[in-house]
From TrEMBL:
InterPro entries per record: NAD(P)-bd_dom, NAD(P)-bd_dom_sf, UDP_G4E
Transmembrane segments: none
Family per similarity comment: Belongs to the NAD(P)-dependent epimerase/dehydratase family.
Key words of the record: Carbohydrate metabolism, Isomerase, NAD
Segments forming domain NAD(P)-binding: 4-323
Identification of the protein by name: UDP-glucose 4-epimerase
Molecular function, one GO term: UDP-glucose 4-epimerase activity
Gene: galE
Subunit structure and binding partners: Homodimer.
Top-level taxonomy: Bacteria, Bacillati, Actinomycetota, Actinomycetes, Micrococcales
Matching NCBIfam families: galE (TIGR01179), PRK10675.1 (NF007956)
Listed cofactors: NAD(+)
Pathway: Carbohydrate metabolism; galactose metabolism
Classification via Pfam families: GDP_Man_Dehyd (PF16363)
Length: 337
């Protein structure tokens, strides 16, 4: 099939493009490159021997989207493009609602106008908010506690209403937990701009000497060692989950939502120790106050994706750290190298 991947030059997007090509699909990428480098696509082409047509298009440009859908015959869309920093979303909420929600509406209108009615949407476990206790289950009520999470929640609602209004649509809502790691080649990986918000890229930058030490946000949570617990999922496993969801949509209409997680939690200290094992030396850290908005524990009930898609994670936390470290060690400054 021919798949449009929005945000396909990004971290999860580029790994999913690679998985789609390896599964025999043809792929076209659109990205505005606001938080990604076209170099990632050049490396995907290097790894697969397949070229990937790239269009620099912004979701807030309806004319650009119309030209894109007129120039290709897409069977489905995998939609990653959007702003994704929780803290930043509280500082510039209007930009997040404009780019994520209005941008997605533009995309869906272009799809409908061109008869493309199959979409896999990149949602997030952040939609569960802090109203529930882990493990999180898909039927739980959403209740994000930040503007970024609310954009994901609103887009899920839009897609749910769209699917209910028109049976021609096939829709998968994928709720990611904590994506980490990198392709085993070390050629593509996470390349956050500025100071990393997320744990593993920050640890990786400490290990490669770009950051002095890890600040651990809180060691007084009611957890095994007092530090926050999250469900880390290898980005290659996550990409495979997208291919599985895409295959499911070829045979099923309607709206479907799945958690994509390992179904188990790891604490900050457990991640730091695993990363230290991958690097071969202890990494410096200091305990700091809790980060506002953080919850103690977040991990998935991943049974629905296994039952419906036959998908589950395969990689261990040590493999996630080894692969993340290989990427960071080989590319100390990300794609800028
Ligand atoms: C993980 C743990 C922190 C950094 C966020 C978004 C979510 C998704 C993934 C987009 C927590 C601790 C972190 C640091 C630390 N993104 N930590 N020091 O907050 O679970 O999820 O990213 O979809 O939507 O909410 O991930 O990596 O920021 O934090 O101690 O320098 O590491 O307190 O316990 P989080 P994270």
């Amino acid at each position: 099939m021919t798949i449009l991947v929005t945000g396909g030059a990004g971290y999860i997007g580029s790994h999913t493009v690679l998985a789609l090509l390896e599964a025999g699909h043809d792929v076209v990428v659109m990205d505005n490159l606001s938080n990604a480098s076209e170099e990632s696509l050049r490396r995907v082409a290097e790894l697969t021997g397949r070229t990937v047509p790239f269009h620099r298009v912004d979701l807030t440009d309806p004319e650009g989207l119309d030209r894109l859908f007129s120039s290709h015959s897409f069977d489905s869309v995998i939609h990653f493009a959007g702003l994704k920093a929780v803290g930043e979303s509280a500082e510039i909420p209007l930009e997040y609602y404009y780019r994520n929600v209005a941008g997605t509406i533009n995309l869906l209108r272009a799809m409908d106008a061109h008869g493309v009615r199959s979409i896999v949407f990149s949602s997030s476990a952040t939609v569960y908010g802090d109203n529930h206790h882990a493990p999180f289950v898909e039927k739980m009520e959403m209740g994000a506690n930040n503007p970024y999470g609310r954009t994901k929640e609103q887009i899920e609602d839009i897609l749910t209403d769209l699917g209910a209004s028109d049976e021609r649509w096939s829709i998968a809502l994928l709720r990611y937990f904590n994506p980490v790691g990198a392709h085993e080649s070390g050629r593509i990986g996470e390349d956050p701009s500025g100071i990393p918000n997320n744990l593993m890229p920050f640890i990786a930058q400490v290990a490669v000497g770009r950051r002095e030490k890890l600040m651990i946000f809180g060691n007084d949570y009611p957890t095994v060692d007092g530090t926050g617990i999250r469900d880390y999922i290898h980005v290659v496993d996550l990409a495979a989950g997208h291919v599985a969801a895409l295959n499911y949509l070829t045979a099923h209409g309607g709206v479907h939502r799945w958690n994509l997680g390992a179904g188990t939690g790891s604490s900050v200290l457990q991640v730091l120790n695993a990363f230290s094992r991958a690097v071969g030396r202890e990494l410096p850290y200091e305990f700091a106050p809790r980060r506002p908005g953080d919850i103690a524990e977040s991990y998935a009930d991943a049974s629905a994706a296994l039952a419906d898609l036959g998908w589950s994670t395969t990689k261990t936390l040590d493999q996630m750290c080894e692969d993340h470290w290989r990427w960071q060690k080989n590319n100390p400054n990300g794609y800028a190298d």
